[in-house]
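Methods, example record. To illustrate the input and output format used throughout this study, we show the complete record for Alpha/beta fold hydrolase. The sequence lines were provided to the predictor; the line carrying structure tokens was produced by it.
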Amino acid sequence: MRSDFDLGRFGLVSGSSLPSAQLTYETHGELDDEGSNCILLPSYYTGTSSSYEPWIGPGRLFDPAEWFIVAVNLFGNGVSTSPSRAHPEIAGAAFPDVDIADNVIAQHRLLTHLGVKRIRLIAGWSMGALQAYEWAARYPGLVDAILPIAGAARCSPHNFVFLEGVKAALLADPTFRQGRYITPPVQGLRAFGTVYAGWAYSQEFFRHGTYRELGYASVDSVIQGWAADHEQEDANDLLAMLGTWQRADVGKHHPGGFEGAMGDITARAIVMPGSTDLYFPQADSEREVELLQDGELRPLVSELGHIAGRPGVREAETAQIRSAVQELLRN
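The corresponding predicted structure is encoded as:
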């Protein structure tokens, strides 16, 4: 069941604030008496707490009969406080910059409210991985294990440039009007999705026709599908989350910088970059794992590109993730 956690006027690390802030979440299962059987699933770009449902249930990655599963929505995703769902003071183009750290601080307040004393595992795909790293660095004594999938501990320069490209496609629509649009900037939203489609999958995905396995009849249907999906999004919400992504850096607020933050992570980590991911490449994860106290690099072997590991896409990738989950929870 989806619920709202009221944060009041929530102060941001930037010094700004979110008035009447709400963090929206879903729970599955029951918290044990020790408050120690929590699984946290932070949402990802254009995803919601419900997007993790393919991982939750009997026989799936996380069984509610055993675990207290909390799936939480990012600020800006249109479910938690967002440009499209905000106090009039910060609605639309007036929405302030929100960092990954802000999301994690708010989530920490939520879990404290729910009675959680220990997090057995934080598993997150894409932007969910950014949050998993931030959690482990900011609250090392609370987190037993993390499973970052197709993500990283910070947004790399190349990743930043990719995001600038999709953003530029949206901003070029004159209907956008610097975020003060009267009607949705449909042309810009579709252009955003079209550009994104070329980055979301690998070259092999298109070369080998793997798109047919995901229900696309042709390359053009991939393009049209992504354009149509993004046409349904709120433009300011997309840009708010995109900014959160671009500013991501686990060392941004740590006195020891990036290396110090990574070195302070005590949680057991299995890091699963997509083997053909174009914007969270395996090479970045290799360098990050070297900085962890107890980290293992375990590439997610797939030709799906970045989409490898997204909940509910394909069993071949889910099986690899399941093996890592079982190992982390067993230990």
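Annotations derived from this record:
Residues 23 and 80 are 5 Å apart (CA to CA).
The first helix runs from residue 100 to 114.
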